[in-house]
């Protein structure tokens, strides 16, 4: 088995981007994760879109196979972002990928941030709050045994860092959503 470093892997996997471009798809790569996406207009036909996505994914899978890489079909996800009034229109969408049928997910996790279909970010806010309160409870258990500076350092590294991560995505959100995160700081 040969292991490539990050730079070599990027050079090696560059054709994945070219395959996406050939199918008129947008893509993002981060380490060994690749996201293929496109903008769907309200009048677009899902059958045409799914055929394009399936063909692109099949070409990527074929390229990977011929280059001794394996595409993990079990980790492949599909999400269609839309306004609340458009969620039902795309509720039965799915893709056939290899031996799997990939159904539309209600929420996906990308680089540690949860995105739901309407970009309401409810699951992200809940997960962040829960994680922060868990860390605060753990710090409170050991607080009698550590200095004030050590407690501050722990709070900054294990609580504040969680609040800060991805918070720019919440810009412009309603105050009631943001207040759930602000309660952590009280």
Automatic annotation (TrEMBL):
**What's the protein called, per UniProt?**
Reverse transcriptase domain-containing protein
């Amino acid at each position: 088995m040969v292991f490539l470093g990050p730079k070599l892997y990027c050079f090696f996997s560059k054709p994945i981007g070219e395959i996406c471009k050939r199918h008129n798809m947008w893509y993002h790569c981060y380490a060994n994760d690749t996201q293929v996406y496109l903008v769907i207009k309200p009048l677009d036909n899902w059958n045409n879109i799914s055929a394009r996505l399936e063909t692109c994914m099949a070409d990527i899978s074929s390229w990977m196979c011929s280059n001794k890489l394996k595409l993990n079909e079990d980790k492949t996800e599909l999400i269609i972002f839309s306004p609340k009034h458009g969620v039902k229109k795309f509720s039965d969408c799915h893709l056939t990928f290899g031996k799997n049928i990939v159904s539309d997910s209600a929420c996906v996790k990308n680089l540690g941030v949860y995105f739901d279909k309407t970009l309401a970010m409810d699951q992200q806010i809940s997960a962040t709050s829960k994680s922060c309160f868990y860390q605060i409870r753990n710090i409170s258990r050991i607080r009698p045994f550590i200095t004030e500076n050590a407690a501050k350092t722990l709070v900054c590294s294990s609580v504040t860092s969680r609040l800060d991560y991805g918070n720019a995505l919440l810009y412009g959100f309603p105050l009631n959503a943001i207040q759930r995160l602000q309660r952590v700081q009280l």
